Amino acid sequence: MGARKRLAAEKRKEALKTQYFAILRNIPSSPRKMRYVVDLVRGMEVNRALATLRFSKKAASVDVEKLLRSAIANWEQKNNRKAEDGELYITKIFVDEGATLKRMRPAPQGRGYRIRKRSNHVTLHVGTKTND
Questions:
Q1: Buried/exposed 42-65: b ≥16 CB within 10 Å, e otherwise
Q2: d(CA 57, CA 54)
Q3: Potential cystine with 41: which of 35, 49, 93, 95 (Cβ 3.0-4.6 Å)?
Q4: Which of 74, 31, 29, 69 shows the shortest CA–CA distance to 50?
Q5: C-alpha distances in Å from residue 91, one per residue of 5, 6, 129, 131
Q6: What is the 3-state secondary structure (H, E, C) of the chain?
Q7: pLDDT score of 129
Q8: Average pLDDT, the chain
Q9: Is the per-residue pLDDT at 131 higher than 80?
Q10: Closest to 15 (Cα-Cα) out of 129, 93, 125
């Protein structure tokens, strides 16, 4: 690895040390369904977001709640203390499209219909209001 690449990699690594995030990959639901749930909690305080996810009827809310708990634990681990009420907020959350499994369903007259089984990746960043 050249010097320029190594310096850029070290710079990226240092930047990640000050960010508190969690990533959930290959969730077997469509990105569109997941974005409905993600839009519910974007920018919220974490305790309020957990309550919103807990009582949401969407199936994707279970995965997002698990991810949020992981991001909070990552913040607590890096800061060596527990998060206080009203301190942490969801600073950034987004859904990316994952791999699509392509399947065939039998159709009339010897044809086949294509089925696309989509998946997605969710990235969630938490932080305090002061250091956005």
A1: eebbbeebbebbeebeeebbebbb
A2: 8
A3: 49
A4: 69
A5: 29, 29, 8, 10
A6: CCHHHHHHHHHHHHHHHCCEEEEEEEECCCHHHHHHHHHHHCCCEHHHHHHHHHCCCCCHHHHHHHHHHHHHHHHHHHHCCCCCCCCEEEEEEEEEECCCEEEEEECHHHCEEEEEECCEEEEEEEEECCCC
A7: 82
A8: 94
A9: no
A10: 125
Phi, psi of 128 (to 5 degrees): -90, 165
Nearest Cα residue to 118 out of 91, 92, 88, 96: 96
Domains in the chain and their CATH numbers?
Answer: 20-128 (3.90.470.10)
Instruction: Tokens 């974007």: give the residue.
Output: 42
**Exposure class string for 113-129: b at 16+ Cβ within 10 A, else e:** eeeeebbbbbbbbbbbe
Question: Encoding tokens for residue 38?
Answer: 């993600």
Q: What is the pLDDT of residues 40-51, one digit of tens each?
A: 999 999 999 999
Please indicate, yes or no, whether the overall pTM of this predicted structure exceeds 0.70: yes
Residue whose entry in the numeric block shows the structure tokens 């969710």: 122
